[in-house]
Design a protein that fits this description.
Elements: H1 2-52, H2 61-70, H3 74-94, E1 112-114, E2 117-124, E3 129-133, E4 136-139, E5 145-147, E6 152-160, E7 164-170, E8 175-182, E9 193-194, E10 199-202, E11 216-223, E12 226-228, H4 230-234
Antiparallel strand pairs: 1-4, 2-3, 4-11, 5-10, 6-7, 6-9, 7-8, 8-11, 11-12
Length: 235
C-alpha cells in the first residue's frame, strides 16, 4: 500500500512539476550552449584582432643602412669614412684632367716687362692711360725667334689691328696660345702641326698699341675662349 502511495505521489509530482523541470533543464542547456558559442566567438575575434594589430613596416634600404652606420662604433665609422675618402681620392686620381701635362718652352728668352693684369688697371705708355692687360710682354730683341710653348696645331695666322702679326696655336685641353707683335712674315701657316720649341716667327714691332715699349713678344693664353694668366700655362 505504501509503495502505491509513493508511486502515485511521484506521478502527481511529475505531472504537475515535471514540465517546468524539463523546461528549466532545456533553458539551462540552451544557456550553456549559447555561452560556449559566444565565448568561442569572442576568443576567435580577439585572436584575429591581435594578429591584425601586429605592426608591419617596410624599411627604406638607405635609411636602414644609415641606421646601421649610426650604430657602428666610432672606430668603425672612422675606418668607413677613411675608406670612402681613399676611394674618392682614387677616383679623382684616375679621372681625366682637363689640362696639359707637357713641359712648356719659353717662347723667348727675355724677362717680363709687362705682367698679366685682368683684375686691375696698368699704365699703357703708348696710349698714356690705365687699362687691363690680357697677356704678358716678354722682352726680346727684334728678330729673335719665337717658339711654340707647347705642341699643337696652328689655327690662325693674321694681322691684329692692335697687336700686329699674330700666330694662334691650339693645344689639348682647350688651351690656345697667341704670339703677337711678330714680324710680317711668320714661319707657319694655319693648319700646320707644331711641336714645343718649334719656331713660329720672329719678334717684330707691329703691335701699334704697345709701340712705346721696348721690343718684346706679347704672349696671350686662352682656356675655352676665356683669357687666363699665361704663367699658369708656362710654369
Amino acid at each position: 500500500m505504501m509503495q502505491n502511495n509513493e508511486s502515485n505521489s511521484f506521478a502527481r509530482f511529475w505531472k504537475t512539476k515535471g514540465y517546468y523541470m524539463l523546461l528549466a533543464l532545456c533553458l539551462v542547456a540552451v544557456g550553456v550552449s549559447a555561452w560556449l558559442f559566444v565565448s568561442g566567438a569572442m576568443k576567435e575575434k580577439q585572436a584575429v584582432e591581435e594578429s591584425l594589430s601586429v605592426p608591419v613596416t617596410v624599411e627604406d634600404p638607405a635609411a636602414q643602412q644609415s641606421a646601421q652606420s649610426a650604430g657602428q662604433p666610432a672606430d668603425a665609422q672612422s675606418e668607413a669614412q677613411a675608406a670612402s675618402g681613399e676611394a674618392a681620392d682614387s677616383a679623382e686620381a684616375t679621372a681625366p684632367v682637363d689640362r696639359i701635362v707637357e713641359d712648356a718652352v719659353m717662347p723667348v728668352s727675355g724677362t717680363v716687362v709687362q705682367d698679366y693684369a685682368m683684375d686691375h688697371l696698368t699704365y699703357n705708355a703708348t696710349t698714356q692711360d690705365w687699362r687691363v692687360h690680357n697677356g704678358v710682354d716678354l722682352a726680346a730683341p727684334l728678330g729673335q725667334e719665337v717658339r711654340a710653348a707647347k705642341s699643337g696645331t696652328v689655327s690662325a695666322v693674321f694681322e691684329d689691328e692692335y697687336y700686329g702679326y699674330t700666330v694662334v696655336v691650339q693645344h689639348e685641353g682647350g688651351y690656345a696660345s697667341h704670339y703677337c707683335n711678330l714680324e710680317e712674315v711668320p714661319a707657319v701657316v694655319a693648319g700646320d702641326t707644331v711641336t714645343a720649341g718649334q719656331v713660329l716667327g720672329t719678334v717684330g714691332s707691329t703691335a701699334l698699341i704697345e709701340a712705346a715699349e721696348e721690343p718684346h713678344l706679347h704672349f696671350e693664353v686662352y682656356l675655352n675662349g676665356e683669357s687666363v694668366n699665361p704663367a699658369g700655362f708656362l710654369y
